[in-house]
Design a protein that fits this description.
The chain is of the alpha/beta class. The protein folds into two domains: 2-158 and 314-345, Medium-chain alcohol dehydrogenases, catalytic domain (Quinone Oxidoreductase, Chain A, domain 1, Alpha-Beta Complex), CATH 3.90.180.10; 160-290, NAD(P)-binding Rossmann-like Domain (Rossmann fold, 3-Layer(aba) Sandwich). The chain has helices at residues 42-48, 98-101, 150-153, 159-169, 185-196, 211-216, 228-233, 251-255, 278-282, 296-309, 323-331, and strands at residues 2-9, 16-23, 30-39, 65-72, 84-87, 90-92, 113-114, 133-137, 142-143, 177-181, 200-205, 221-224, 238-243, 258-266, 287-290, 315-318, 338-342. Strands 3, 4, 5, 8, 9, 16 and 17 form a seven-stranded mixed β-sheet that branches. Helix 4 (159-169) packs across helix 10 (296-309). The structure holds NADP nicotinamide-adenine-dinucleotide phosphate and zinc ion.
Amino acid sequence: MVTVNAYAARSATGGLVPTTIERRDLGPYDVLIEVKYAGICHSDIHTVRGDWGPQPYPLVPGHEIAGIVTEVGSAVTAHAVGDRVGVGCMVNSCGECANCRAGEEQYCLAGNTGTYGIVDRDGTITQGGYSTHVVVTEKFVLRIPDGLDLDVAAPLLCAGITTYSPLRHWGAGPGKKVAIVGLGGLGHMGVQLAHAMGAEVTVLSQSLKKQEDGLRLGADHYHATSDEDTFTDLAGSFDLIVNTVSASIDINAYLQLLALDGALVNVGAPAQPLPVQAFSLIMGRRSFAGSMIGGIRETQEMLDFCAEHGLGAEIEVIPASEINDAYQRVLDSDVRYRFVIDAATF
Ligand code: NAP
Ligand code: ZN
């Protein structure tokens, strides 16, 4: 075991504080990673605050991890000391169920092992990337391509793949009209990715405050959802809507914006329900769906796609001492567009 510095929540309300945690000795398939950057995802905040249920405090969040391999187990073949690597929202899965075999480990029928707050295979609780080091089995370690800096790559491990996967699954591309709801961490990646895939992209944001940024990131159109006209002007116009909003919104109003056979895919995970009227779906053969991160193979594909297209997150790098302030700014929708913690400050 090795003792490393980390930041942990000790309760739902106390904020994050410096601490130390133990990382396991390397097994034959394990990789020791020196974390360089850890992104702050809204899911970290939901989890710490107990939005999704009680947590096993103390809890070290962080599932957007980028760093360098410093040691490998005796049987590791996929990664070597010095490699630039990333770890996302899961660190293991059963590997045997139909979904794992299909490369959709996030939907493991036995439950994937989340990067933090989950009982690991050895019975300990997983602890995430707000830490100087992590130990992860090689299959769940991604290669960060040359040309992607580690700081802008870190958020791709969750915000990137969570938007890439539904865009691919629902066929975003030339001739498709795609709307991204919410221009935060996920949303700003969704806009860049959908644009790079060739879709016509619209941002639906609470206000026009970030319009210039949205257009610069690749959106063709930008509308404020606080303006009632938005919902009448855009009725029936989108093939795909990806909702990244962290709070409950009026899903029925957004379903009206879908064209025939359109799909509204929810990736936002608010604590509150998202009630849907049957007629919102019946009228126009519309679908309301959800999507969770992406499998390991697809995550690697997304990283390679970002490198090829010169995409990365727009980030604000902060020291660990500013995590609690950053959390508040994310809650206030005052993030442009991802906070990334410099791991040298843990
Ligand atoms: P974020 O950076 O806080 O972005 C969310 C955006 O939603 C905000 O920037 C804001 O955009 C909009 N928003 C916030 N409150 C709103 C409200 N009350 N009404 C309307 N719009 C509002 O969060 P994130 O890190 O992108 O995460 C977004 C959500 O996705 C979270 O719930 C997170 O847990 C979830 N998530 C899910 C997965 C998955 O696998 N499905 C993975 C990661 C995260 P505007 O200011 O532009 O309106
Ligand atoms: Zn996340």
